[in-house]
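Internal tracking record. Fields below are filled automatically when a chain is submitted to the structure queue. Please do not edit lines marked as system-generated. If the sequence contains nonstandard residues, flag them in the REMARKS field before resubmitting.
Queue: standard
Priority: normal
Entity type: single polypeptide chain
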Amino acid sequence: MPLTRSMASASSSSATAIEQMLASYIPITTEPSLFTGVAPFLAVPIKDYHNPTPAQLRLTDLLLDGLITEDVAKITEAVTKLNLTCHRVDADPSLAIYRCKDISEFPVLLYWRFGEDVEPLVIEDPHNKSDLIFRLATDLILNNTFKARCMISNSASKGADKERAPGQSKRSNADGAHSTKTLFCEIVKRLFRKQGPAVAHLQVHGMVGSSNTWMLVENGSGINYTQEYKSFPTEFAYALAEKFPIPICNKFVLCTQNLPGAKNGKPYTMHDFKQSKAWFRTKSKPINTWVCARVINGGGTWVVGKDRGVWLGVEFRTASFGMPNNNPQRKNIVEVVGLAIERFKNSTKPSPDINPTLLAQEDLLNSVEPAEVEELIDPESELEDAADLELTSSSASNLLFSTARGTKRSAAATASDSSPNKKYKMS
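SYSTEM-GENERATED OUTPUT FOLLOWS
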């Protein structure tokens, strides 16, 4: 059964204990932006990167249990034993950030928002600086439209480990989006198992894209978004059409064969896409190398799993959403996510709940490498990966103030890729 806040945790005395705990945390500034405060802790090269140990995972479980139930004693014990530094965000007294000075021991930045007036949403930010999407990521956790429960950012650069990710030989074992061995992926998996399918997950990435391709909307699993029960990818797609006009929506690609319905007399998708005749282009092959989607959808290192409607991955073109002059587009995306999560949580088609027996079966299925591994669809080349690894080695201050490099990459893609049917370089 999903963990919930206990009656004791919901009491005024417990609320006071949480407030006292947060008051003792080190403040992080949001001037000129939240990213300014957290930049030194993200995408850091590590000489001695290692997978989380069983002891670290047990303590991480204790921390997550304490956060979900707002149990100050559990939080304090876990924080002490994990040697975490605790921060509070100056612009939102309910938002805490947990990190470790020795990033090799806890290579994530964990944001957690306390209280009852919080949306059931976990934001996953596996690449951050290397994707040049940091402005959007921090906008999603701190904005005036909705309050997400949690965000996880990978503190380690995605190339921090020379070992390759299991099952994905082009990827580093430290890459939170592509390695099931990372603490990042372990936290995503544990949060899903503790909170259940009533809490949605949104993973954000940046991509080079093109002038015709600003976004890819994925479920990380199959060729269609599920229609059996509520679907966060589906609600996100519908919300895009609410906040962006059709010429802009034509630049968004849904990784599904069909999105049912129509708006203003035009279908959301059509088999043979024509500009302005339908809202979105479609792509029949999903990206199925995103391991956080796999662990939420019942898969793992070797198995993709089946779309539960909970996990959404979005590739945003950095030239359209990541640059300083993209504030209007980012504001629209924040409103899209807010609308989508509101519809998701109020859906009349709840996702089937998870139970220990089901999870044990999934663990057994995923524990052994099968004779035939499902085909991995991974559009990113090794050269692109190498460019990203080079980018992550830059200092935080350079990344914060020098985004011209990302602009050049995007401009080059625009010049060379004006066709909607071209392949896209993604993370």
